[in-house]
Write a structure and sequence with these properties.
The protein has 272 residues and is of the alpha+beta class. Among the domains are: 3-47; 143-272, no CATH class. It is 15% helix and 42% strand. The strands form four sheets. It has a 16-stranded antiparallel β-sheet that branches. It has a two-stranded antiparallel ribbon with strand order 2-3. It has a two-stranded antiparallel sheet with strand order 11-12. β13 (157-161) and β14 (166-170) form a beta hairpin. The protein is flat, with a radius of gyration of 29 Å. The chain starts with a helix and ends in a 13-residue tail after the last strand.
């Protein structure tokens, strides 16, 4: 037998090996696709490496978790809690919690077992966002409460910001043109609005198809109202001295600051 014959045999063997290898790769890829038994088995193994069920009450990341809480860690090193699920509701961060999930800002999304008041806000049963210190960051309000003279519709979301003396409201609506609230200053409110702590509007975002109209101008984008500091405390009836936003002229988007119609105050505040 010549060397050419041996070369052909080696080539055939190599070709068969390549075909077998490709077939194995296809089989393995199919076997571990999401939803397959092997894929679910692999996920269970990986989850087991980062999951602990507490056999006694423990303080983790500054929070006292009761026994039998299922802790899911961020990594297999078990250094930081990613989430926790409680066997039964327990008092955590000032609420009756059923589970916690860490969020990027350093706080927690917390499942609350019942409607509860947090920092003076009546929060509905479900999910709330709390800071690491247990202060309210975000929740859906229960029923139709009112705040500083604002009657709020059902399913309004609130985000208190005491550090900047503001409250942000997320209002429910069916479309950008179906706004739920009206006010003397802002007309029909957009989806999200920031209010000063006395209830006067601070800023909002208006879509191009539903602009804010004032002084014969149509403003869109980020709209902000400015006030005379001496009028602080007047709430939703507080008269602005100026309003700023964006106008479209000849295809160009331009930022403008307009005096408030009828305002005789020359001095402008910084939004409060």
């Amino acid at each position: 037998m010549s060397w050419r014959f041996f070369a052909r045999i080696l080539l055939w063997i190599a070709a068969i090996a390549v075909v077998v290898l490709l077939a194995l790769l296809i089989v393995v890829d199919e076997a571990f696709k999401p939803g397959t038994p092997l894929s679910r088995f692999q996920q269970r193994i990986e989850r087991a490496r980062i999951t602990t069920v507490l056999d006694r009450p423990q303080v983790l990341d500054g929070i006292l978790f009761p026994a039998r809480t299922e802790i899911v860690w961020e990594t297999p090193s078990h250094r930081r809690v990613a989430s926790a699920r409680l066997r039964s509701p327990a008092d955590i961060l000032g609420v009756r919690a059923t589970y916690l999930r860490r969020i990027a800002e350093g706080g927690w999304i917390v499942g609350v077992a019942e409607a509860t008041e947090i920092d003076g806000w009546p929060c509905a049963k479900g999910e709330v966002e709390l800071t690491a210190a247990g202060q309210l960051w975000d929740c859906e309000l229960l029923g139709t409460p009112s705040w500083q003279g604002w009657p709020l519709p059902e399913h309004t979301g609130v985000r208190p910001r005491p550090d900047i003396h503001q409250v942000w409201l997320t209002l429910p609506f069916a479309s950008p043109l179906d706004m739920p609230l009206e006010a003397p200053v802002v007309g029909k409110l957009p989806w999200i609005i920031a209010l000063n702590d006395d209830g006067s509007p601070f800023g909002a975002t208006y879509a191009d198809e539903a602009p804010y109209r004032v002084a014969n101008q149509e403003l869109s984008g980020d709209v902000k109202w400015e006030y005379d500091p001496a009028t602080n405390g007047m709430g939703r009836q507080r008269p602005p001295v100026a309003v700023s936003g964006f106008v479209h002229e000849g295809g160009v988007r331009r930022h403008v600051v307009l005096p408030w119609p009828g305002s005789t105050t020359s001095e402008r505040g910084e939004g409060r």
